Amino acid sequence: MDITKYRQQLESEKKRLEGELAELSQTEESEVAFRDEIADRLEEQGEEAAGTDELKEELHQVKTALAKIEDETYGYCVICKQPIESERLDANPAATTCITHRDA
Question: Which of the 8 DSSP states describes residue 94?
Fold first, then answer.
């Protein structure tokens, strides 16, 4: 397993997610003043909040994977403790389960 490759992918993804979250945060802050004037914007903000939650969850998963690399537990299924298939890690370096347990 090429841990260096996965670490680089995870670091890159972490940087992207942090940038997107920072951008959304700035947008939300600047629009608070106009909230009363634009009723449609409230609906959009709800959608953005859901998007922000998804980004935060993705970032959490990436940070967890990076921590597992540091403590040398990366690449093992949290359910069966077997190595996660390289195809799965190639598709999602933050995966915590093998293909068998992906829906668990």
Answer: T
Enter the tokens of residue 80: 């069966």
State the residue for tokens 């998804």: 54
User: What pLDDT, on a 0 to 100 scale, did the predictor assign at position 27?
Assistant: 60
Distance CA 51, CA 87 (A): 27
Phi and psi for 71 in degrees, rounded to 5?
Answer: -95, 15
Domain ranges for the chain: 3-74
Q: How far apart are CA 51 and CA 24, in angstroms?
A: 9
27-32: list long-range contacts, CB under 8 Å, 24+ apart: 28/52
pLDDT tens, residue by residue, 10-44: 999 999 999 998 887 776 555 555 555 555 555 55
| Of 104, 101, 61, the residue nearest 77 (C-alpha) | 101
